[in-house]
Amino acid sequence: MTRPTGAANYQPFELRTSITTTATQGIQHLARQASGTPREQFTALMSHQKNYLRWIDSRHQELLDAKRELNPDGRGPKDAVYRKYRWYAQQQSLLEAINSFEVFYKNTFINLGGAIQSYVPPEKVKGTVDAKTLWATATPSSTVALIFEHQLFHNLKTIDDLTNLLVGHRRYMPDNPAGLFYNKSRALQAIFQIRHTLSHNQGRVTQSDMAKFAALGYSVAQGEILDPSSDHLGTVIREVLLQEVDQFTDWLLDKTAGYLTQRNRNHGTVLLVAHRDVIVSTVGTLPVIMGLPWQ
Q: Which of 33, 75, 205, 287 is a Cys-bridge partner for 44, taking CB atoms 3.0 to 4.6 Å apart?
């Protein structure tokens, strides 16, 4: 590979010893959401994606308008090229949306775990003795990150295990057709399968993909490409994710309030205002959270 023109510091990757990063504040579409709750961060990202796709449409339309005004008989922007690259943008942004939904789960658990760690007995933590010891002795920020960061947040059973760990309740129960959120869990599992197909098969539906979709009640054509631009697929997936971010956060806060109430009444646990403030600033709030007997 030839060196880019003018790139005096250009160094092939295999010769490098570090990976380049930029502070969140330096990435414009992330800067305003860096300090928000996971719900606020995800909502902001979805807004950025919507604006991005609209911007692509508006640039193309402005080129068409300029062509008609300046040279009606000349060559203008090609619709086929526009559709090709807009489709690419839709596919990649949908993958980012689903990945960001997983990050929402992860950051929510890390933040809530850090806030209520002192109220969760170490014996509730599943894992090795080392993990339980860490839960009991290390600082909240380090412990919770070590316990939660490596989890697979595209697995609803894992999410149920973690909510049960923290607040004693499971939300999704994907193996229970009679469960309150069974249809939602089925839809989310299908969306995570879409993420898998986009990530690992470049969007092409394999026989294995088709079987997994079928098991969830969705038909799909083997050998064809998942198309977020067709039949509003990308739009309806984002709608489900945005809705679940709101509903899951409120559900978790409600269950957190119930768990802390139980610890206070049955075990005499003192609820500290400092922990309430961390919950509010890093996860969110509901009246039931604010109404607890904080001291």
A: 33
